[in-house]
Design brief:
108 residues; mainly alpha; 3 helices; globular; binds zinc ion; DNA-binding phage zinc finger domain-containing protein; Phage_Znf_bind_put
Length: 108
């Protein structure tokens, strides 16, 4: 049964929730929560949730190595400019959720 919920910014809110759970998983070092993030993320995409520019926040950044849930920081040769995360992180999230590459530690 489908129910309708009024949430105009549903995609942003969804990824915001993913980021918050990722931050909690990092804070508590909880592998179960990391696995839940992958499960929820893949199921949501299968249901048509779109990726937004901040989607990658639930992963550790492959460039500046900040923890899941944390915003990127400037790194040598990888200035952030106006972005809150590195483009490589967003790209990694897309590929990992599609199953094209493995999730990085500790989501694997
Ligand atoms: Zn980064």
């Amino acid at each position: 049964m489908r129910i309708n919920v009024e949430e105009p910014r549903a995609a942003e809110r969804f990824w915001e929730g993913m980021r918050e759970v990722a931050a909690a998983a990092a804070r508590h070092q909880d592998p179960g929560l990391y696995h839940s993030i992958v499960k929820i993320g893949r199921a949501a995409l299968a249901q048509g949730v779109e990726l937004v520019p901040s989607s990658g926040l639930f992963l550790e950044c492959p460039v500046c190595e900040v923890l899941p849930g944390q915003r990127c920081v400037n790194a040598p040769r990888h200035p952030l400019q106006d972005n809150i995360l590195h483009a490589e992180r967003t790209e990694l999230a897309e590929k990992a959720l599609r199953g094209e590459v493995p999730f990085p530690h500790p989501l694997r």
